[in-house]
Amino acid sequence: MLVPTTHPLQAGLTAESTLISAYRGIRPATTPVWFMRQAGRSLPEYRELRVGTEMLQACLTPELASEITLQPVRRHAVDAGIFFSDIVVPLKLVGVDVSIVPGRGPVMGKAVRTAADVAELVANDPAQLDSALGPIIDAVARTVAELGTTPLIGFAGAPFTLAAYLVEGGPSKDHIRARTMMHSDPESWAALMAWTAEITGRFLRAQVLAGASAAQLFDSWAGSLSPDDYARHVAPASARVLEFVRDLTFTLPDGTTEARVPVVHFGVGTGEILPQMRDVGADVVGIDYRTRLDEGIRRLGGNVPVQGNIDPAMLAAPWAVLEAHVREVHRRGLDAPAHVMNLGHGVPPETDPAVLTRVVELVHSL
Length: 366
Ligand code: 1CP
Description:
Helix content: 40-55%
Distance between the termini: 37 Å
Organism: Mycetocola tolaasinivorans
CATH class: Alpha Beta
Main location: cytoplasm
Strand content: 5-15%
Domain Uroporphyrinogen decarboxylase (URO-D): 32-41, 153-169
EC number: 4.1.1.37
Pathway: Porphyrin-containing compound metabolism; protoporphyrin-IX biosynthesis; coproporphyrinogen-III from 5-aminolevulinate: step 4/4
Bound molecules: coproporphyrinogen I
Order of helices and strands: HHHHEHEEHHEHHHEHEEEHEHEHEH
Number of helices: 15
């Protein structure tokens, strides 16, 4: 299905941007760069804007969400905006008792631990989300109107990562309870994953239809899974999420070629499951800093565009050290058909914003 004619991809604004070209496997003259978690914590203008507003409230206030999305694009001249929201926003919108606790992350009013807990959760019809997505659609529309030729990336959390919060009740280290449920009660687990896929898939599709030029699925905690567990208990639900956007296409400015809206898939510490993460339906795979970029490219068969993987710890190192690292990541990325520079995970909150701006300048000069 073609995205609407007013969509930035279909209107020819972002279709040939460096980001979308790279995501489509066509290496642009300069390497595009953006940073996971570029919107938010590390920017003083963000902290100022957020005073007195809770995180989820900020996500659901279109003027705020849009302004926060634009801040890092203006400041750093990155090649993409990432929509300011959170992976738990669609849960909140269907009535799940979740809040984001400062300095901690998403916390549930009640953890989903038993078969009865799962049954109660999945009784909530995912289709009701469609009528609650207004603030998201509004925020995306406002944002892309300001971004012009800079593409916006929409995103969602993958079912496993969301389930890790739902089952544990909040952030956890190894997601033990979630990983136990998949073995002790595979039926409840499957029901939980299927329901979560319907919720998060709708959230992602709404962002793309409203104007996002690419979609990124964050399975941040999938690195805690064995390849067998990933294949059996997680991949089918992630594939289902991507079905919500895989039918969306746009016409290239040549007027004849139709292309799919690109999809990126990323998780932390997922070096052992990179090909599986591509196979659920991604065009681009994000690689975290624990895997050498050229090795990740090799594991993916050498024909998949990649995104990554500056070590976030390097952002606080002396410039000469950081510069050498960025140059090395860039060199390693040449083994792929195309490479989008990014971090191996999110921007640490204490990062000096001037360093990010300097990294963008460096990457554009390479
Ligand atoms: O107090 C604050 O200011 C809240 C901090 C914060 C922010 C700015 C949270 C809480 N979420 C966000 C925004 C956010 N979350 C964005 C948009 C901004 C951007 O990327 O520039 C995105 C893409 C996310 C996605 C997200 N939320 C992920 C996947 C990406 C990743 O970093 O792995 C995950 C795992 C979450 C959960 C979450 N939300 C917030 C925190 C601190 C966490 C992680 C908690 C944990 O360690 O388990």
